[in-house]
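[agent] plan:
  1. take the single chain provided in the ticket
  2. run structure prediction with default settings
  3. attach structure tokens to the ticket
  4. add a short note for the reviewer (M.T.)
[agent] executing step 1
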Amino acid sequence: FTSFGYFNSHNENQSVVNSMKTQINNNGTIVIDFLNIYKVLSNIVKNETKVIDGISFNINKEIRENNIVKTIDFYDNNEKHTFVEKVEILTIDDFKHYFNESGLKIKAVFGSYQLEEFNHEHSDRLILMVTK
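[agent] step 2 finished; step 3 output follows
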């Protein structure tokens, strides 16, 4: 889904990026696969139900404290289950800030797994290749 955005603060995000820098060699590359937050926010479906193998999954998404929070409720064998996923709303500018602070450089930016150019409106992903 995404490889970043699960931490609780700017300082934790920066600490993770700083740790990445120390873990790669001078010729190494860091790849961050993140969602295109611009497209996600403009197309968010707040409530939906999906039926898979006869089980109804009620999915609710909301923006809360700069996070997209997805709550999934379903019943199985008459028992209710709830899962919550949370990812921080981060833009390409946020990533640039983290990389600049740690001394890393963006080598390339892509908008898909086919390595298409990143487009705020149309790309599904934000894929960043970063070096020392």
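[agent] step 4 note for reviewer: The longest helix spans residues 10-23.
[agent] ticket updated
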